[in-house]
UniProtKB/TrEMBL annotation:
Belongs to the ATPase B chain family. F(1)F(0) ATP synthase produces ATP from ADP in the presence of a proton or sodium gradient. F-type ATPases consist of two structural domains, F(1) containing the extramembraneous catalytic core and F(0) containing the membrane proton channel, linked together by a central stalk and a peripheral stalk. During catalysis, ATP synthesis in the catalytic domain of F(1) is coupled via a rotary mechanism of the central stalk subunits to proton translocation. It is a single-pass membrane protein. It comes from the Eukaryota. It holds the Pfam family ATP-synt_B. One of its GO terms (molecular function) is proton-transporting ATP synthase activity, rotational mechanism. This is ATP synthase subunit b, chloroplastic. HAMAP family: ATP_synth_b_bprime. PANTHER family: ATP SYNTHASE SUBUNIT B, CHLOROPLASTIC. The chain crosses the membrane at residues 26-49. It comes from Salpianthus macrodontus.
Length: 184
């Protein structure tokens, strides 16, 4: 059995005048082809994958920024509500005789609704971040799977000759026929 360097040595001994030949050492040529295909996939796939991840990272960061802005607005609303609460408390001191319990109820409702709004905004932010992360992961998985499948198909197509391809098709047709007879 020859090693991978024998094919290069063989190439060096080809006559230079008017003849053409093929290297029939399948193992050596397949190793060379596979190494070239794998090198090309790594070279081009790394950039695509890094671009996808960078884009997804920017989208997630934008979503986080938007959520933080929403949170900031909610905090501002909370401060405004607290200011209104202080104002209501001062008015409550003036009107204590006429409706102290009703004012207290309104105050609690206002605080509760503000906290609920703040919690809803926080939950929305967390759900958005989780959704974007899952979507990014799924897109990266799909892209990697698609590239691996294309690479495998390219490798298979380059390795199969016509006779082997026809034998494989005939064998698969025979298996389907046998499966059909079993199910009938």
């Amino acid at each position: 059995m020859t090693n991978g360097t024998d094919s290069f040595v063989f190439l060096g001994h080809w006559p230079s005048a008017g003849s053409f030949g093929f290297n029939t050492d399948i193992l050596a040529t397949n190793l060379i082809n596979l190494s070239v295909v794998i090198g090309v996939l790594i070279f081009f796939g790394k950039g695509v994958l890094s671009d996808l991840l960078d884009n997804r990272k920017q989208r997630i960061l934008n979503t986080i920024r938007n959520s933080e802005e929403l949170r900031g607005r909610a905090v501002e609303q909370l401060e405004k509500a607290r200011t209104r609460l202080r104002k209501v408390e001062m008015e409550a001191d003036q009107f204590r005789v006429n409706g102290y319990s009703e004012i207290e109820r309104e105050k609690m409702n206002l605080i509760n609704s503000t906290y609920k709004t703040l919690e809803q905004l926080e939950n929305y932010k967390n759900e958005t971040i989780h959704f974007e992360q899952q979507r990014a992961i799924n897109q990266v998985r799909q892209r990697v799977f698609q590239q691996a499948l294309q690479g495998a198909l390219g490798t298979l197509n380059s390795c199969l000759n016509n006779e082997l391809h026809l034998r494989t098709i005939n064998a698969n047709i025979g298996m389907f026929g046998a499966m059909k007879e079993i199910t009938d």
